[in-house]
Amino acid sequence: MVTLSTEQLDVRLGRHLAVRGVNLTMAPGQLIGVIGPNGAGKSTLVRALLGLVKPAAGRALLGGAPVERLSRQAVARSIAYLPQGQTLHWPLAVERLVALGRLPHLGPLSRLSADDEAAIEDAMVRADVNGFKGRIATELSGGERARVLLARALAVGAPALIADEPLAALDPGHQIDVMALLRAQAQGGALVVTVLHDLAMAARYCDRLLLMDGGALVADGAPMDVLTPERLASVYGVAARIDVSDGLPLIVPTTRI
């Protein structure tokens, strides 16, 4: 089990204060969505949680320890990371690309063990890419590559997973599959954090939403407590249709305000 937290976290990107004064604690067993308009600081926040950007003030903590003081291998073993918009430059076979997820567990010149191979196979099945074996990753479509990269993150077998915009480039069916997979990860005891733009998916699948605006955390709670008409108007500048008639929330932005 692992926890992630921040204490009065500020992050500067050049002169821009991209994250400001964020306090939060995230524990295992939840699917947590990070939402907000473009430029709200969502990706910067998750990069700070991973120790990929340094705080200008405050702290990001992994298991109670400042993440910037931990080794990169220790962080990689604890948190699997799926960044947004990755570009593949090397013509690796799909199964070799997924196998890169096991690197945090390997020493210099180590070979994959039977446990490593089992983790790779399981990740490929769960991400629905087992049928891509033998294909070259750079020859896949954008959506297919996105699923392979998700499989690589799952292959790490870390107790926490951060996925930054995992639905980008996916068709509707695979978007549903990915959200169901992330929820299953959380229900299995993992801490899962995902950056999302699709408010309907965020509302229907996430246990908790963190709404960011202008670098600040402006709301934190259950989806329907966060996604109120007033907040959708003030943060996104939209009116939306909100329907809970089937027991699950459906949020459809309709007009600009």
From TrEMBL:
Pfam family, one: ABC_tran
GO MF annotation, one: ATP binding
Keyword Metal-binding on entry: no
PROSITE patterns: ABC_TRANSPORTER_1, ABC_TRANSPORTER_2
Keywords: ATP-binding, Nucleotide-binding, Translocase, Transport
SUPFAM superfamilies (UniProt xref): P-loop containing nucleoside triphosphate hydrolases
Chain ranges passing through the membrane: none
Chain ranges of the ABC transporter domain: 4-239
SMART domains: AAA
Function: Part of the ABC transporter complex HmuTUV involved in hemin import. Responsible for energy coupling to the transport system.
Family from the record: Belongs to the ABC transporter superfamily.
Annotated protein name in UniProt: ABC transporter domain-containing protein
Organism field: Sphingobium yanoikuyae ATCC 51230
Lineage, top ranks: Bacteria, Pseudomonadati, Pseudomonadota, Alphaproteobacteria, Sphingomonadales
